[in-house]
Design brief:
Blueprint: E1 6-10, H1 14-25, E2 33-37, H2 40-53, E3 59-63, H3 69-79, E4 81-86, H4 93-103, E5 106-109, H5 130-140, E6 144-146, H6 154-166, E7 169-179, H7 193-201, E8 204-208, E9 211-215, E10 221-226, E11 230-236, H8 245-248, E12 254-260, H9 263-274, E13 283-285, E14 288-290, H10 292-299, E15 313-324, E16 327-338, H11 339-346, H12 350-368, E17 376-378, H13 384-394, E18 399-403
Parallel strand pairs: 1-2, 1-4, 2-3, 4-5, 5-6, 6-17, 7-12
Antiparallel strand pairs: 7-15, 8-9, 8-12, 10-11, 11-12, 13-14, 15-16, 16-18
Helix pairs in contact: 1-2, 1-12, 3-4, 4-5, 6-13, 7-10, 12-13
Bound molecules: NADPH dihydro-nicotinamide-adenine-dinucleotide phosphate.
Length: about 425
Amino acid sequence: MDTKPNLLIIGAGGVGAVTVHKAAQFAADFGTIVLASRTRAKLEALAGDVAARFPNVTIEVRTVNARDAADVEALIKTVDAGLVVNVASPYCNKAIVDACLATGAHYLDTAVAEEEHVENMPAPWYEIFEFTRRPSFAENRQNAVLGIGFDPGVVNVFCAYAAKHLLDEIETIDIIDVNGGDHGRYFATNFDPDTNLREIREDVVYWEDGGYKTIGHHSRKMTVTLPVVGEHTVYSMGHDELHSLPYKFPKAKRIEFWMGFGERYLRVFEVLENLGLTSSIPVEVEGHKIAPVKMVKAVLPDPASLAAGYTGEVCIGCDIHGTKDGAPRRVFVYSTCDHTDCYAEVGSQAISYTTGVPVMTAALLLARGNWNPGTMVNVEELDPDPFLDLMPKVGIDWSVMDLPPDGGWSDAGQ
Ligand code: NDP
């Protein structure tokens, strides 16, 4: 971009909190910084937190209905935003994308668009909405970088890095996400319960042998031993990145996402599910239509509130099998992050931190002109090197580890 863009961050939840702190840390790269969401009180409290840590930076706050494209468009025009970071709910994506197209603002997000009362969207998910808008972004020479949290996001970058530097052929990709932390609550989700419980309860769709396979949730598991967090049971799960990576790696035999769950979490989840309380399809309660998952969300802890006292670490990475110079090679490209360190730095837990840091890294690359695709892309389509150079300076380091190609945790799949 020729001049420093005004930055508009939409969403002031757990991820928005990290994103706006990181924007303040790199305020020299932006014009004005504006934080917007529904609830003014939350916006003001968050702007106050940022002001306490960065007294020389001003964060403007605005309320907006981010499910209404006209409202978002008016806001983008009012604050003259050149770059919009969407860290609100996935239900807001359509309105925000269309408002960006209407105004010419560049766009970043961390999750694929979803419809509030639609479950088990057909694969590939990005074709349902995002790719329908790609020709318009290309025609306008306008940037949209999709899914740049950690997963989706950094894990897609790790795959691009492995293809560029570590492997000649990629055979399988296992994306593994383990939160080894403890928030001390009986049951809570680490990000928006609505989105989180839905992604766990839906059928699992993964890529194998040139097409998508569908299996029941929690029906495939394996045991992994990861750096820092140690041994965990992880379960195959549907996830956004499985709906973009096959475009870049169509010859991969299998691309699958695995997430760790503790015994307690699974027990509570099973009860909620068997009672129908994780459903996003509304039921009638004394004349009012309400989605059961919304009621559950209302009584669960706010994900942002888990940060104080959260201990332990997360490890997220890509276990990639392939070949290098004709010989089998297997690498694990990963990051770890400590909940307590995140809280000390920005008052947030690691799940929010590992999403806010990458989206702000990508925002900086767009603002500085290091990335300028001039169209809509998934992040693995971009050069991984500038991103992986910058991300440690924004707050998260990463590593590569060689693993024995013939053994280890991936063989434990059942
Ligand atoms: P939260 O529920 O904590 O926050 C959501 C924010 O969006 C809130 O500030 C909320 O406003 C705002 N919002 C929701 N609907 C509207 C609306 N109609 N108009 C204006 N603002 C709205 O969620 P998180 O911060 O935990 O997650 C944010 C996003 O990040 C989600 O899309 C999630 O899927 C994604 N994510 C991605 C990850 C990745 O690695 N790629 C990992 C974790 C999350 P208010 O508070 O006023 O209600």
